[in-house]
Write a structure and sequence with these properties.
about 260 residues; globular; 8-stranded mixed sheet; about 15% strand; alpha/beta; single chain; two-stranded parallel ribbon
Length: about 260
């Protein structure tokens, strides 16, 4: 019976993974969160599921992360992320560093330790080949509106690739994400769709990657097969804010000090 770890179970992708993985009675789940009350508020009754174990604490707590990624774990979904273009954001870098440190700790404890396959949430914008015939003007806007997020993801990927001699990882690189029902997905190593994909379909694609045991050290996009996927209404204001934070990063910190943004 497979065991999966979810790093970031209170996020939209992590929540979708948790929902889908619980549908199979054979799955065991280690869910890492920074706030257990927040998770239980989102999913009342989760604590009663004996196949879900919750790990709460700081991402910098290497012992905690090592417990989450214990030797029984077959695959780990690293989905701690943000959609806001926060200057200096380090969520992906900190996740990669903590995961590497935790796995090193486990390997030092047991020379026969086999690390879990890492499924790391990234973005199609980091892979030029994925964008295909994406309009250059739109690509330029998105790249700037998410510049700090993409820099964070890029550094995290570079860090992970330094350990490819003993780790297996796949970088999941979808296009736009939206909240919608599960409608069907397909994996692609060539092209990301120019529309949106739901978090549930993204999660299903990530689970498929984990179960396949393939796509090691590759970028893989999860694309929607349906044509009627919802447009994400929060995308335009996020892009607008992202452009402001890109061209005037100091303004973000000013707004935050005034509690205009969180």
């Amino acid at each position: 019976m497979p065991t999966y770890a979810i790093l970031g179970a209170t996020g939209k992708t992590g929540g979708a993974l948790l929902e889908l993985l619980q549908k199979s009675p054979s799955n065991y789940i280690n869910a890492y969160v920074r706030s257990k009350p927040k998770l239980l508020e989102q999913r009342p009754g989760l604590e009663k599921n004996k196949k879900v174990k919750i790990f709460e604490g700081s991402l910098s707590d290497i012992t905690l992360i090592a417990s989450t990624l214990n030797p029984r774990v077959d695959a780990a979904f690293c989905v701690l992320a943000t959609n806001e273009n926060i200057p200096g954001v380090r969520i992906a870098q900190d996740t990669a560093s903590s995961v590497i440190a935790a796995l090193c700790h486990l390997r030092n404890e047991n020379i026969h330790f086999k690390p879990p396959k890492l499924i790391f949430l990234s973005s199609a914008s980091l892979n030029a080949a994925m964008l295909g015939e994406f309009p250059p003007a739109v690509e330029a806007i998105i790249t700037r509106a998410m510049s700090h997020v993409y820099a964070d993801l890029r550094f995290a990927e570079e860090n992970l690739r330094l350990h490819r001699a003993w780790l297996d990882a796949t970088f999941v690189q979808p296009g736009g994400l939206t909240e919608d029902v599960q409608k069907g997905h397909k994996l692609s190593v060539d092209k990301a769709s120019d529309g949106f994909v739901s978090y549930l379909d993204l999660a299903a694609g990530m689970i498929e990657i984990a179960e396949s045991g393939t796509y090691n050290w590759m970028g893989v996009s999860v694309n929607a097969t349906a044509k009627d996927v919802k447009f994400e209404p929060n995308a335009p204001p996020q892009i607008l804010r992202g452009l402001v934070w890109h061209f005037a990063p100091w303004l973000y910190w000013t707004c935050r000090s005034l509690r205009i943004v969180s």
